[in-house]
Amino acid sequence: MIKTIKSLFFLSLLLLLGACGKDSSDTIPDENKSEDIIILHMNDIHADISNFPKIAAYINDLRESNDNVFLFSAGDLFSGNPVVDQHDEPGYPMIDLMNALKFDVAVIGNHEFDYGQENLNKRISEANFPFICANIDAENAILNQPEAHTAITSSTGFKMIVLGLVETGTKINGRYIPSTHPDKVEGIEFPYYKTEIKDYTHLKKDDNLFVVLSHLGENSDRKLASENKEIDLIIGGHSHTVIKNPYEENEALICQAGSKGRFIGRVDIKIEDGLVLSKSAKLIEVEKLNKVDEEIASIVSEYNSNPVLDRVIAQNLAEFSNKDELGSLMTDAINWKLKTDIAFQNSGGIRSWLPFGDIKVKHVYELDPFNNEVIVFEMTCDEIRSLINSSGRGDLKVAGIHYRYMEQGDVQLETYNGSKLDESKTYKVGLNSYIASAYTFNHADEGQNSFVSSSNCLIEFLENEKEINYSGTKRIFGIN
């Protein structure tokens, strides 16, 4: 009996010591585990690095007071600033600065392809963050296959599943591609994003956040949200929409932050016991921020210091007021340089404005950033009409002729003095390589590559002219 009592005593003592030796967290769960997550986002920066010093200061201040600050890009990092586009390694300054700001993830936008697939592979390899996209199939392409999604984890282990999608709004010979030069996406297939997302919605769980990092445009984002209840958050791009008051569609919060780094999007998420308690979003106007990160400012200043791009090449005597005037100048330059009879420039390729007064080399590359070479065709009048009719009304700016939309739906081709073009003749017509590849029109001649870019045509033309005045220039009639 005494032995039994002693045995029970020692057993009880061992159990008590064992319990005391355990971590209290093993037996008492933290029922009030909560945290705040901040997602900052930008989209359609288009190589504009001017606001990065203020953006960096804002982000760094947040990181000092919060363990969970994440930075997303919703696509179109490149094309728009010659400091970045004309760099020896096209696009590298953007990646360098994004690494310095510690971006967490980027979706591949349509303009990420503008430098070609080899350059895109290099830029992605240099980034300290992943580039993702679910609706890209690069099995037969130069581009390395990107991951469809990535998982980002908070300091307490809460997971955010981030899925990337890119727009495919351009149809070329029955094939849908993003809005870029068709040659730049050769070999890449782009499955329909609405179908493709269905392969990933199973990743949504009760205890995570399912985020779509979208380069689709706001209208497509709304449709995507309405058709997929699993989406918690859409961070958008492509349409350059300034959504000052982010809103919910089918319980998905939809956000977008304009373009060119003028705004930072901010999403605040409250987590309680591993579940999303609330989510809200707003825009931060960068111009109103006062602090500057001196280290980032120094990097930006070094990239901006470029005497080649700052060279003055002409004087503009009158402000440009519309794309008709700009397009007339750009096409005049093609005719002058290549001795073509007629030249066309698509409105979508006119990306900026030339300033009043000094025109510098960099202003031309901002206006025409894509390095598209000019293709020269021998074309009949009917083939020229086919080209004009293949685009929206007034889309193609012109030099060498006027053209007029008639009531019957026909297009009348005229000389500058108003007489009709000779229908029996063929004409040398200069088109940038994007028009030549992306527009569907009749042409018996396959075209000859001049191996001269439209931007270089313009630089040389301006140097030759020394002064320009295109105020009131009009060559397209009957649009309305």
Terminal-residue CA separation: 110 Å
Counted up, domains total 2
What percent strand?
25-35%
Helix content: 25-40%
Stated plainly, the CATH topology of the largest domain is called Purple Acid Phosphatase, chain A, domain 2
> What structural class results from the helix and strand content?
alpha/beta
Walk me through this protein's architecture.
- This protein folds into 2 domains: 34-304, Metallo-dependent phosphatases (Purple Acid Phosphatase, chain A, domain 2, 4-Layer Sandwich); 312-477, 5'-nucleotidase,  domain 2 (Alpha-Beta Complex), CATH 3.90.780.10.
- Helix content is 29%, strand content 27%.
- It has helices at 2-21, 24-27, 52-65, 82-85, 92-101, 117-126, 193-196, 218-227, 294-304, 323-338, 361-367, 381-389, 433-438, 454-465, and strands spanning 34-42, 69-73, 105-107, 131-132, 149-153, 159-166, 170-172, 175-177, 208-215, 233-236, 247-249, 252-256, 263-272, 275-285, 312-316, 342-346, 357-360, 373-380, 396-399, 402-405, 411-414, 426-432, 448-453, 467-468, 476-477.
- The strands form 6 sheets. It has a 6-stranded mixed sheet, with helices on one face. A 6-stranded mixed sheet has the order 5-6-9-10-12-11. A 5-stranded mixed sheet has the order 19-16-22-18-23.
- Strand 7 (170-172) and strand 8 form a beta hairpin.
- It is globular.
- Mean pLDDT is 93; it is low at 1-31.
